[in-house]
Write a structure and sequence with these properties.
Blueprint (H helix, E strand, L loop, with lengths): L5 H29 L4 E6 L4 E2 L9 E2 L1 H13 L24 E2 L18 E2 L1 H12 L5 E6 L2 E2 L7 E3 L2 E3 L2 E3 L1 H11 L1 E10 L8 E2 L16 E10 L5 E3 L2 E2 L2 E3 L11 H10 L5 E6 L10 E2 L6 E2 L9 E6 L1
Parallel strand pairs: 8-12, 16-18
Antiparallel strand pairs: 1-6, 2-3, 4-5, 6-13, 7-8, 9-10, 11-13, 14-20, 15-16, 17-20, 18-19
């Protein structure tokens, strides 16, 4: 097919313009991608909603319980003793007889701007609100948005979709991340595909200096974790007899779970729920001790393996 003398020129200009626009779009995408900060947000577990006893009330309850709380809020002023100002602001005297301050939180007031008045409810409702506020994680999940991994002092890298190179991906990687953060498991997650060129990724089992920086490298947009683990079960950088805990019981024997189990039993638990060992732990100023024989491996240029975290069962 023969083209006129003007069409190739127009076509060339179109190609150049397309290339410029594509480069601009790519630059914008990089800027946007780099602007994605790693944050956390709280969400209610499935079947639960925010209680909304007061502004920014971070407690999750059933829809029925939320409706009860809203009814209490609507009736709150009716149960305040009209003569409260002449009293010494005691728990009993500010409310009418048979009613008590709910105290669901520090801002649980009829008038948010008033530092004195409180919402007056029945004793049963007050006790229930207190219990809910004392157990905020019972029905609450945490969402890690654009989670990161690696040396977080320097920003780290986007968490890779796989624990190791192309293995143990998606749900397994999300579950391990939640365990490491001190949660029972992963509720759900969302993938962020083809981000490696603008945001290199690193998996939890990658070596510390290894990243995936190609376009096809994938990460997580978010991971939602559930079931907060009591802090008395979580031991970060665990120590024994004043030294970092070596991952082996003796020499190169009984490494990993057997040592973690022994440590948890020493702490009074039945065994290990989860443990994590940094694959590239380089001890420059620390030493490690084996529980089996009490051998202390002094700090030197050798790579010493030590637990990052042990969570007991």
């Amino acid at each position: 097919m023969v083209l006129s003398s003007t069409k190739p020129f127009i076509h060339l200009k179109s190609l150049l313009l397309s290339a410029v626009l594509a480069a601009f779009a790519a630059a914008v995408l990089v800027i946007v991608a780099e602007a994605q900060d790693s944050t956390i947000s709280w969400v209610c577990s499935p079947g639960y909603v925010w209680r909304d006893a007061f502004k920014d009330d971070l407690v999750c309850v059933t829809p029925q319980r939320r409706a009860e709380v809203q009814a209490e809020n609507a009736e709150a002023e009716k149960h305040i003793d009209p003569n409260w100002a002449v009293y010494a602001f005691t728990h009993a005297d500010d409310c009418r007889h048979g009613y008590y301050w709910r105290l669901a939180g520090p801002n649980d007031r009829v008038d948010p701007g008033n530092s004195v008045d409180r919402k007056c409810v029945t004793a049963e409702a007050s006790d229930q609100a207190a219990y809910e506020s004392d157990h905020p994680y019972d029905h609450m999940d945490i969402r890690y948005n654009y989670p990161r991994w690696g040396n977080l002092l320097f920003g780290g890298y986007r968490l890779d979709l796989c624990l190791d190179w192309n293995s143990s991906c998606r749900g397994v990687a999300a579950e391990n991340f939640c365990h490491y953060q001190g949660w029972t498991g992963a509720r759900n997650y969302a993938e962020d595909l083809n981000i490696g060129a603008s945001q290199p990724t690193q998996g939890m089992y990658f070596k510390s200096n290894s990243v995936c920086d190609q376009t096809e490298c994938d990460g997580f947009k978010y991971i939602t974790c559930y079931g907060n683990i009591s802090s008395d079960r979580v031991y970060r950088n665990p120590k024994w007899l004043g030294h970092r805990l070596d991952i082996c019981l003796q020499g190169n024997d009984g490494c990993g779970k057997p040592t973690a189990d022994a440590y948890c039993r020493w702490k009074g638990f039945t065994g290990t729920f989860y443990y994590f060992v940094n694959r590239d732990f380089l001890s420059s100023n620390l030493d490690a001790i084996t529980m089996g024989d009490g051998q202390v491996y002094a700090a030197n240029k050798n790579r010493l393996k030590s637990f990052d975290v042990i969570i007991c069962q």
